[in-house]
Amino acid sequence: MLVSVLLCLTINAYSEHLLDSERQLKVKAAFVINLVRFSQWRSKNKVQKRKTIDLCLYQYNLLHNSLDSIVGKKIKYREIRSKIIKTFRIPEQCDIILIPPMALKEFLEFNTTENLQNSITITDLSQNSPIINSLENKIIFRLIRENSRLSFEVNKTAADKLNIGIGSELMKLGKIVSEPDRNHP
């Protein structure tokens, strides 16, 4: 219930009139923090033992200066810190990965589900993207803009493959998408 209230408040408070790009970025940052807050790393040895959660982003990240509202926040008693990644292959120490639309093609090409294990992957498809239907089960959350509202999609297949648990309340709020597993007919 708490998840529903928090996300609904965030969505309603900011998404009515997303005219100004700075406000859009703040809304997206709020979505990111809430999506992560109500997800769970299933592997006890990766994140739970550390005091920080590493948020990795490309040099041209999708939230720009709005990341200030995320970095330093605590999720499950661990502080979020940001890391800039300079290559398309994601290093192991990324717990949350923000993939901008302009890097999706390279991200999908250079990363496997094995090297993304226990990473929460989020992209922003609120802009037009030619890759929207070919994310190959590597992207768990997709921010989507529908008219003047910002919403999100949850790829449960990707979450399962990357060893990330998604809370049932979060699943109710997002649009569930499922892509065929290319390894299994």
List the helices and strands and how they pair.
Layout: H1 2-15, H2 21-37, E1 39-41, E2 52-58, E3 74-75, E4 78-85, E5 96-99, H3 104-110, E6 120-124, E7 141-146, E8 149-155, H4 156-161, E9 164-166, H5 168-173, E10 175-177
Parallel strand pairs: 2-4, 2-5, 5-6, 6-7, 8-10
Antiparallel strand pairs: 1-9, 3-4, 7-8
Quick description:
It is built from five helices and ten strands, in the order ααβββββαβββαβαβ. It has helices at 2-15, 21-37, 104-110, 156-161, 168-173, and strands at 39-41, 52-58, 74-75, 78-85, 96-99, 120-124, 141-146, 149-155, 164-166, 175-177.
Polypeptide structure, described:
- This protein has 185 residues and is of the alpha/beta class.
- It has a single domain, classed as Rossmann fold.
- Helices cover 27% and strands 26% of the residues.
- The protein is built from 5 helices and 10 strands, in the order ααβββββαβββαβαβ.
- The protein has helices at residues 2-15, 21-37, 104-110, 156-161, 168-173, and strands at 39-41, 52-58, 74-75, 78-85, 96-99, 120-124, 141-146, 149-155, 164-166, 175-177.
- The chain has an 8-stranded mixed sheet. A two-stranded antiparallel ribbon has the order 1-9.
- Strand 5 (96-99), helix 3 and strand 6 (120-124) form a beta-alpha-beta unit.
- It is globular.
- The model is unreliable at 12-19 and 181-185 (pLDDT under 50).
